[in-house]
């Protein structure tokens, strides 16, 4: 099935730093790349625009870029001149063949060398990755064609296949390079890894495993809200733990930050509590020193099982370095039925103030708590 694919540009105000947040949404513009977008028949969802898709829409050097699957389920990347240019679509050879909302396309731009990076179609699958020619995003004289994108590969570092990938994401570094983050292995039993792209050498290298969920007690995985840098160059990450395959075991809200691009990690109090481990996916899975459930100070909110707590919602940092996190779960009581518990979930906003203390508000609209069955995104411009 297909559906017109539109990019809707909005202003989202929720602010915010007061005892009760109110929300307002204003449509500024709507634009269409001129292509149909594939719609999954089982859910009527498009395979784009998920909260964990980092990112589906990027603006850089006067251009805006977006990624999606077209009606033939092929990977597409389109760009337009800001503010209102015509979309220029590139259709790549890779074709999705599975209706699974996990299998989105993510995009990153390395500002240092102008390369565009794409990862797509993952739910415990070998890596599907391609990169543009060097300079494509920095040099407008280069042709915007499929020929300027490389083939799909399962490697970042040469000779090192990357297996069992879910939720890949690219994070732009302050120095113009990129990080690549993903989960290895399964829901409720997986680790999280970081790799780094150097725009000077045009190559990837391993940072390592930074979250351990496998071979622990209990086995678990971290569901990342988002990973982003603040304006001071500090890298922030927040997540929930899942101890089994089902969402009913999503629990707690955790947070850490890094001042060395993910090599070492500090808790919210500024204590170094973990180190990323330079091991490959196929290396020994023994317990180590990375982020894990046994580090109690990583928890910033106690959220038990059966709260209708959706994994992977949203996080962002404002201009003062304050980290904002929005999650949805039941405000009171528990419910072991996932569907009904989600129908009772409300939006919780937390932010880490300039003194390092976490503040917690419920988001309201017209004086009422906001119910949220689906995932949300937070956008900051303050």
Q: Could you give a quick summary of the protein structure above?
A:
With 382 residues, the chain is mainly β. Helices cover 2% and strands 44% of the residues.
Give your account of this protein's structure.
With 382 residues, the protein is an all-beta fold. It has one domain (35-320): Neuraminidase, CATH 2.120.10. 2% of the residues lie in helices and 44% in strands. The protein is built from one helix and 27 strands. The chain has one helix at residues 338-343; strands at 2-4, 7-13, 21-22, 24-31, 36-38, 57-60, 63-69, 74-81, 88-95, 105-110, 115-120, 129-131, 165-172, 178-186, 189-198, 203-211, 221-229, 235-242, 250-258, 264-266, 272-275, 299-301, 314-317, 323-330, 345-352, 358-365, 368-369. Strands 3, 23, 24, 25, 26 and 27 form a six-stranded mixed β-sheet that branches. A four-stranded antiparallel β-sheet has the order 6-7-8-9, with no helix packed on it. It has a four-stranded antiparallel β-sheet with strand order 13-14-15-16, with no helix packed on it. The longest helix is centred in the last third of the chain and has 6 residues, at 338-343. The two termini are 40 Å apart. Residues 7-21 have low confidence and may be disordered.
């Amino acid at each position: 099935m297909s559906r017109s694919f539109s990019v809707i540009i909005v202003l989202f105000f929720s602010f915010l730093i007061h005892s009760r947040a109110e929300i307002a949404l204003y449509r500024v513009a709507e634009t269409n790349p001129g292509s149909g977008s594939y719609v999954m028949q089982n859910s009527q969802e498009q395979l784009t625009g998920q909260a964990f898709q980092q990112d589906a829409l990027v603006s850089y050097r006067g251009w805006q870029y977006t990624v999606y699957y077209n009606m033939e389920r092929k990977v597409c990347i389109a760009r337009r001149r800001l503010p209102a240019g015509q979309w220029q679509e590139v259709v790549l050879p890779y074709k999705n063949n599975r209706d699974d909302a996990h299998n989105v396309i993510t995009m990153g731009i390395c500002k240092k060398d102008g390369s565009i990076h794409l990862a797509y179609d993952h739910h415990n699958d070998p890596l599907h990755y391609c990169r543009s020619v060097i300079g494509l995003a920095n040099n407008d004289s280069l042709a915007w064609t499929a020929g300027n994108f490389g083939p799909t590969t399962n490697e970042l570092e040469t000779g090192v296949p990357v297996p069992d990938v879910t939720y890949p994401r690219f994070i732009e570094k302050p120095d113009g390079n990129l990080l690549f983050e993903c989960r290895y292995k399964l829901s409720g039993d997986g680790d999280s890894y970081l790799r780094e792209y150097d725009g000077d050498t045009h190559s990837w290298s391993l940072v390592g495993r930074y979250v351990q969920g496998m071979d622990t007690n209990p086995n678990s995985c971290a569901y990342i809200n988002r990973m982003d840098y603040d304006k001071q160059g500090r890298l922030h990450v927040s997540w929930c733990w899942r101890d089994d395959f089902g969402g009913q075991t999503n629990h707690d809200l955790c947070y850490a930050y890094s001042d060395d691009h993910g090599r070492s990690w500090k808790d919210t109090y500024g204590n170094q509590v973990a180190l990323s481990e330079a091991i490959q996916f196929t290396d020994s899975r023994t317990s180590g020193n990375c982020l894990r459930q046994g580090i109690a100070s990583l928890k910033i909110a106690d959220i038990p099982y059966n709260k209708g707590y959706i994994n992977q919602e949203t996080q962002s940092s404002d201009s003062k370095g304050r980290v904002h996190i929005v999650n949805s779960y039941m405000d009171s009581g528990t419910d072991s039925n996932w569907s009904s518990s989600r129908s009772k979930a409300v939006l919780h906003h937390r932010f880490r103030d300039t003194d390092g203390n976490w503040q917690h508000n419920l988001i309201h609209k017209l004086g009422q708590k906001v119910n949220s069955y689906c995932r949300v995104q937070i956008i900051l411009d303050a």
